[in-house]
Amino acid sequence: MKRRLLRYALFALVVLSAGPVDGALAKSLLDPCDVAMGKNAPCAGAECAFDADTELEGSWQRVGTCIRGLRDAWSKNGPQAMVPAGDRKAPVADVVRNTIYRAMSQGGGGAALASDPGRYVPLEDVINPDLSFKQPVVRIAQLNDRGLPYTAMSQSGLARVLYSFARLAAEGGYPRAEADRDAYLKIANASIKTVLTPVTQGGLATTNACPGSPQRTCSWFHAITRKDRATDQGATLNKNLHAIRDLIIVKEVAEKNRWPVDPAIDRAIEAGLNQLFLSPGHTEAGRPPNMADFLASPGNGPSWAYYGFNPSAQPPKGGYFLKQEGRNCSYHDHVLDLMGTILKKTRDTDIAEEARSKALSCDSPLRKMYQARMELIPAPTTASAKTKPAQWCTKTLDKQVEKNTRFLAKAFSKCPQ
Q: 67: which residues sit within 8 A by CB, 6+ positions away?
């Protein structure tokens, strides 16, 4: 408790240095979404922003999503732009830094130290309010009830947003610009490192040699919603694709700004695509799935995609749908959107050429998923589906999804109908 009170006191000093803190500002600092939207979070008094019992809710992914509004304000109006914070305003660069600190120090985070990378210590013990680390850190992660990382999508999503803030800080325009740039990159890269590290070593990847090609690797990046279960039981398709997509975007931002790119990122992007289209998939309990394992309908025809997969199940079981029928349709669209983005962004590279070729072939499981959506085939009635047979997808594609699936439409247009 004393350590937490001291941490909040330090945080208070950072905020107070910008001027007096009124009750509205204290309230708004309770929640990153409220900071981004200029609203007040529920609060019983002006002092509660520094109350040791007050916690930020949700995953780092939520924090990353919520501060996009701050990113847009910074990009448009500069780092000193005053953004709403309750009934007062504060410089956007300061609000971003403070919000990230709160997320890092309150969100159940852990840090693997360079001196002892095999275990996680509380992140709140090693991160300062200015986002510097008190000790050399090799990985950071949001931890589950088992004290282990549990969501690659959240880790990569936060890293992607932090890279965008590093780019803005690199443009300068305020005293702490260089320090903020370095801090955002350091935190982002430490988060990415967790995504790339094997589950057996405290990370989120299951990596195996690809069949017939010992020099190639196949990787699945795990994410599981339940915090009481083992990390490697999580194999949700869209979350795995989020991690691959985010790594591609991080690499793009780094290259445009001439920042060093860890070669492991390229290898991970390739290994992720290899797993989907070159690996044998879920051939035994404990093996992660490939893209074909998510096909709900056997055979050569169109098929809806399972939402998730349980790698601990005995084959051929493993795939499952959500109970809410419409959400399965939305996530099917999301998979097409993410795959369209991934394949479009890697088309002019030499990353995973064989896997990308298979992904866009006429007998590809991705094409079967694409056909199911375009033809609006009936809802699946397989025994493993947890939904009742009913209308599955009746709405038209979202504009953004439609934009990214044009790439798939063009690629599959050569296939026989």
A: 32, 35, 36, 96, 99, 100, 161
